[in-house]
Amino acid sequence: MTPEQDAPTQGMIPQQRDVVLKLSETSRELDEASRYVAKVDREAVTAAHDYRLAYARAFLEATGSVEERKQKAVLESETQRFAMEVADQQVRAVRDRIRVMRDRLEVGRSLNAAVRSQFAAEPVGQET
User: Fold this and answer.
1) If exposure means fewest CB atoms within 10 Å of the residue's CB, which of 19, 31, 98, 125 is most exposed?
2) Tens of pLDDT along 71-89?
3) Helix, strand, coil % (nearest 5) of the chain?
């Protein structure tokens, strides 16, 4: 078999060193994302607080029937509500990213185990 014919199979099973490096990189990314989710979660809580305050103030300052005051409060606090929803979406996105990274770690661990098994099964240094 020529090197060109063998090329598609080369690199299909990564070297253990490459797997370990990728696992380390993913682990660092996971640490960063964990710290970042705390930050965006705090921002989401603050945005929700700001929305509730804006709505309450607008409701109390409005005149008219109760339903009319509610609708005026909704209109007056729309910017804060939107900011709250965007902040919530950011938290969900970061948590999804963390879930994906955890999945990648699991795949990497499985791949690393397969590489170790292959290495143990190969007759390296043995005469046959």
Assistant:
1) 125
2) 999 999 999 999 999 999 9
3) 80, 0, 20
